[in-house]
């Protein structure tokens, strides 16, 4: 059975497929549209721009419990804790979309049986794919991370991630210290696509995160508890591309650094789709 869920800013989940409490049905907006501009040349047209349109997912939420007034009130409070993620499983895996509930419509009455909800999207659909290069010894210490990563085949200082989407997909590259002046390279289908570099020292128990999953893109240093240490954008080499998005096919992300032979790294990817 297909399922819908919401995740709020605190990471809490609200299930929208519970028939005796809250059930989302008659859903629209699961496809996509494009905004395209053309330039006429004689009897032909050249494409000037071609982008996915911002989408809205709409549906009715039925509150069928015995205390549907409070169920509705609980739902609206949950939606106010934004930004939100909409999780959709059509039967072939879970896909996500970021955004906000920007409209909830209902009529007055003691028994609230339904509300019409509009979720405005700030991203396309995406699936999370996380890969970590494990078993690497760095600075004499073997790290044993317990994050929910897949484990890449063992190639020193490299993670391999496959994208089955033709949309360029954002990612976080996580480089674990100790590293000095790291350089990162992106190969797609065995071709070097882009590089990045920072003139910075990241100590042990810290990490450098190069992030294209949020706007603006960023390069920041964190500790292993995800506490921000410093913005490292100004230390980056502006003659390099720095910020990567995954291509269709096999993506190899490789990291090197001054004096380092083994480096721990991970890729947290959001593989995007126009429709699912």
Fold blueprint:
Layout: E1 3-7, E2 13-15, E3 17-18, E4 22-28, E5 34-41, E6 44-52, E7 56-62, H1 68-80, E8 84-89, E9 95-105, E10 114-121, E11 125-132, E12 137-138, E13 141-142, E14 150-151, E15 158-163, E16 169-176, E17 179-180, E18 183-188, E19 191-197, E20 201-202, E21 206-211, E22 218-223, E23 228-231, E24 245-246, E25 249-256, E26 265-273
Parallel strand pairs: 11-14
Antiparallel strand pairs: 1-2, 1-8, 3-4, 4-7, 5-6, 7-10, 8-9, 9-10, 11-26, 12-13, 15-25, 16-21, 16-24, 16-26, 17-20, 18-19, 18-25, 21-22, 22-23
Description:
The chain has 276 residues and is mainly β. The chain has 2 domains: 3-123, Elongation Factor Tu (Ef-tu), domain 3; 126-273, Jelly Rolls (Sandwich). Helices cover 5% and strands 53% of the residues. It has 1 helix and 26 strands. The chain has one helix spanning 68-80; strands at 3-7, 13-15, 17-18, 22-28, 34-41, 44-52, 56-62, 84-89, 95-105, 114-121, 125-132, 137-138, 141-142, 150-151, 158-163, 169-176, 179-180, 183-188, 191-197, 201-202, 206-211, 218-223, 228-231, 245-246, 249-256, 265-273. The strands form 6 sheets. An 8-stranded antiparallel sheet has the order 2-1-8-9-10-7-4-3, covered by helices on one side. Strands 11, 14, 16, 21, 22, 23, 24 and 26 form an 8-stranded mixed sheet that branches. Strands 15-25-18-19 form a 4-stranded antiparallel sheet, with no helix packed on it. A hairpin with a 2-residue loop joins strand 12 and strand 13 (141-142). The longest helix has 13 residues, at 68-80. It starts with a strand and ends with a strand. Residues 135-149 have low confidence and may be disordered.
């Amino acid at each position: 059975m297909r399922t819908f869920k919401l995740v709020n800013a605190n990471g809490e989940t609200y299930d929208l497929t519970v028939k005796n409490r809250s059930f989302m049905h008659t859903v629209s907006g699961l496809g996509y549209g494009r905004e395209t501009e053309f330039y006429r040349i004689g009897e032909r047209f050249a494409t000037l721009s071609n982008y996915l349109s911002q989408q809205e997912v709409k549906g009715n939420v039925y509150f069928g419990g015995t205390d549907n007034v409070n169920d509705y009130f609980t739902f609206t409070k949950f939606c106010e804790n934004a930004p939100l993620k909409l999780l959709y499983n059509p039967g072939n895996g879970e896909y996500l979309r970021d955004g906000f509930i920007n409209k909830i419509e209902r009529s007055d009455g003691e028994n609230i049986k339904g509300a019409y909800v509009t979720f405005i999207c700030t991203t396309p659909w995406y699936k999370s794919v996380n890969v970590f290069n494990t078993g690497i010894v760095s600075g004499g210490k073997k790290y044993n991370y317990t994050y929910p990563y897949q484990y890449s085949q063992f190639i020193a200082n490299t993670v391999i991630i496959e994208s089955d989407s033709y949309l360029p997909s954002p990612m976080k590259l996580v480089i674990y210290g100790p590293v000095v002046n790291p350089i990162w390279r992106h190969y797609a289908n065995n071709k070097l696509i882009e590089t990045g570099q920072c003139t910075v020292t990241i100590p042990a128990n810290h990490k450098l995160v190069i992030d294209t999953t949020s706007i603006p893109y960023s390069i920041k240093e964190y500790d292993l508890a995800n506490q921000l240490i410093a913005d490292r954008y100004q230390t980056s080499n502006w003659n390099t591309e720095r910020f990567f998005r995954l291509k269709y096919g096999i993506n190899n992300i490789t990291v090197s650094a001054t004096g380092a032979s083994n480096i721990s790294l991970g890729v947290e990817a959001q593989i995007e789709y126009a429709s699912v």
